[in-house]
Specification:
This protein has 150 residues and is mostly helical. The protein has one domain. It contains seven helices and no strands. Belongs to the DoxX family. This is Putative oxidoreductase.
Length: 150
């Protein structure tokens, strides 16, 4: 659905901006998707270099066996971030990232007792990933190029 369709019935304070909003809608969404994906890649780069390094931490959260979940965490952040950035299998990659980030928020807020301020970044990124889990990659994605998506 395009912005023109979404906002055609809405009254803008400055109607002359409708064309700008419409023309930049998909591009802005694509930029957010790419930034979110690359942020996950950057965050997961250290983990993918040592994919079992978080085994004790994930096991302390109740995820057994820790080595399996540590590997899954590493792959979800690094490879899932790549998939989100390029828009391939966008929905499942973004859903997996949403789960990882929700657990990260829980870990900081509840397990470590650091409260909202230390969990805030994970909550925001989880919301961004949830958006793409629901919306998909849009027309500027590999999913759109191949003509199939989840």
């Amino acid at each position: 659905m395009t912005l023109t369709t979404e906002t055609s019935g809405r009254r803008l304070f400055i109607p002359a901006l409708r064309g700008i909003y419409s023309s930049l809608h998909d591009s802005a969404e694509t930029i957010v998707r790419i930034v979110a994906g690359l942020a996950l890649v950057a965050h997961g780069a250290g983990k993918i270099a040592d994919p079992f390094g978080a085994a004790e931490m994930v096991q302390s959260l109740g995820f057994y066996p820790g080595a399996f979940w540590s590997l899954l965490l590493s792959c979800t952040e690094f490879f899932g971030g790549i998939l989100i950035a390029i828009g391939l299998f966008t929905r499942p990659a973004a859903l997996a990232a949403t789960v990882v980030l929700a657990v990260a928020a829980w870990y900081h807020w509840v397990t470590l007792g650091q409260g909202y301020l230390m969990a805030e970044k994970a909550i925001i990124w989880a919301a961004v990933c949830l958006f793409f889990a629901i919306r998909g990659g849009n027309r500027h994605s590999v999913d759109a190029r191949i003509g199939r998506e989840f």
